[in-house]
Please model this.
Amino acid sequence: MAPSAIFPRDRVTIVGVVNVTPDSFSDGGRFFAGPEVCVEGVVSEARAQVAAGAHVVDVGGESTRPGAEPVPREEEIARTRPVVEALAKDLAVPVSIDTRHAEVADAALEAGARIVNDVSGLADPAMASVAARHQATLIVGHLRGVPETMQDDVRFGDAVADVGDELAASLDRARAAGVPDDALVADPGIGFGKRLEHNAALLAGSGQLRVRLGVPILVGPSRKSFLGALTGDPVAERDLATHAACAIAAFAGADAVRVHDVEGARRAMAVALALREAGQGLA
Ligand code: HH2
Model:
């Protein structure tokens, strides 16, 4: 499958989340039996996500929640590589590796992943060349600094303009390392060093970002704390709010959403896409 076929314009691509971490903020520890990752459990969850409508399954081995402790590379590889290998063999959809580290991405791409999802915006200088060498799709996220401290000093003039400019610079670095344009996806980094008003502006501004950057836009608001701040919902009850945020972003122009609840997203995206297309017809 060519990279451009994974995020086509005529659908909203649904990326299902499978975190093989003990400490992710909403689904940590689900697939751990003692210290070991339970690969069968992950395969069964991923199959269910694909049956529910996921176009991509995204595997992460390190939590990036605010204040999270970094995971040693060997540990992150030990968590993710066997899972990626099993999923790449088992699933009919592409597997993505969610990592900030080129070494981890390299191991996952060797094991059959087709997409690198880097929330750090290429903080590891080797990341883009690893993606290029494997002819992988590269999702470039927006993050100032590191997850440990990203919420400490948040300042934007105009969040959509600032994030757009900073993402454009990261995308240029990826191009310079040999990643072709049709293999690039940009993500404004919802919840990554942003306050509620920035998250809201970036989701509503998905279409502006798309025009500014010229590549597909992925958004990942799933279950994040700004949704709790808006609704009062605890983390386990934020899927409805997630689907509202994703639907509005998709209506505004987002090409892809990263979610924990794929079934709900499929329904929300069916409606959002129909309304977006109807709106374009009226323009
Ligand atoms: N958010 C998280 C992780 N990966 N990838 C992209 N492209 N965009 C996002 O917004 C994004 C992401 C954080 O959420 P989660 O994986 O649920 O939690 P944790 O980082 O605690 O594992």
Summary: Residues 166 and 223 are 25 Å apart (CA to CA). The first helix runs from residue 3 to 6. Strands lie at 13-19, 32-33, 36-37, 56-60, 95-98, 115-118, 137-141, 184-187, 218-219, 256-259. The mean pLDDT is 94.
